[in-house]
Amino acid sequence: MEANIETLFSQTGTVDQIIYTAGDKLAALPIQEVILESIQKAGMVRFFGPLLVAKHLPRYLSGGPASSLTLTTGSVLEKPIAGWPVIASCAAGHHGMVRNLALDLAPVHVNLVSPGVVDTTLWDGTFPKEDFGSFRKAQAKKHTMDEIGKPHNVAEAYMYFLRDWNCSGSVLASNSGVFLTGWGLENKMR
Q1: Rounded to an integer, what distance in angstroms lies between the CA atom of residue 165 and that of residue 68?
Q2: Interval 83-94: pLDDT, tens
Q3: Nearest to 55 by CA among 86, 87, 18
Q4: 181 CB neighbour count, 10 Å cutoff
């Protein structure tokens, strides 16, 4: 992974901002099924990846307060879901990671976007196909916005961090008001 990141940066050259939204299939596992390898696999893209990007970023970032690194976490930190201890651990780790990177990479500003349920392919394979449509409808009823987020909605959170040079070590949530009503994911996951 580290060699791939280094190759990507060397091919890209100097950049002003990086937004890290990478995620792979959600590693929802009950704690009884978690093994070291499943933790490592779940953290590869979601946790280790951002740290390694931050490690190599200073050589390729234009630098100064106009430069930024914005990472992505998940709302599961705020509203736990049974069977998601590994994912929740990564999400919790992102908060500490961003605060420390904001110090280590200063004056580059480093921030974190925390989306709730967003209608993307991230959910593919998380539910049986026939259940995904009902999941989407059920989630919409549990959000104060009467629908789950769309990628273009959450993109505004990333744009905010690109524009506000006064933010560093901060978290911005985009979650359709789900914490006011509840997730309703319990016992719905495979």
Answers
A1: 8
A2: 889 989 999 999
A3: 18
A4: 12
